[in-house]
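F.,

This is the one I mentioned.
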């Protein structure tokens, strides 16, 4: 069994464009608005298309995903539990150890400044995680002196 690879960035961007167009309602507009905010918060963000149809925004690791459902748009931050959220944007997946999500329903107003700060904090967290040396997983071996 082979794992599905993410679509190349330019293909992913086109697929996200298509998803927004296909939705054709408030969910498409919400996804387009969030996408613009993500790019404004992090001009180096990379768009990906994973898991058979999920828009993903990354910068040295996944920042968040943008899933569309019948009644809402879900923005899932894979490391959301480690992010500061003073504005209380996270309103879903609050019980997990790592992920946090923002569910947007028709008519919801997203605090744009707080959302951009959340994206920027996710970038910083990814960069910090990347720069930390990995802890040794070997057990029972003495450390070198």
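My design for it:
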């Amino acid at each position: 069994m082979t794992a599905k690879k993410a679509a190349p960035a330019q293909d992913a961007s086109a697929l996200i464009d298509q998803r927004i167009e296909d939705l054709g309602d408030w969910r498409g507009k919400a996804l387009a608005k969030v996408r613009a905010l993500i790019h404004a918060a992090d001009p180096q963000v990379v768009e990906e298309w994973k898991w058979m149809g999920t828009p993903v925004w990354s910068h040295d690791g996944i920042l968040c995903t943008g899933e569309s459902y019948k009644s809402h748009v879900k923005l899932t931050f894979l490391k959301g539990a480690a992010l500061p959220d003073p504005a209380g944007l996270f309103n879903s997946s609050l019980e997990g150890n790592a992920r946090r999500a923002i569910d947007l329903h028709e008519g919801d107003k997203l605090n744009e400044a707080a959302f951009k700060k959340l994206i920027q904090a996710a970038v910083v967290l990814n960069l910090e995680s990347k720069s930390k040396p990995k802890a040794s997983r070997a057990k029972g071996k003495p450390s070198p002196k």
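Residues 9-127 form a domain with the Aspartate Aminotransferase, domain 1 fold (CATH 3.90.1150.200).

Talk soon.
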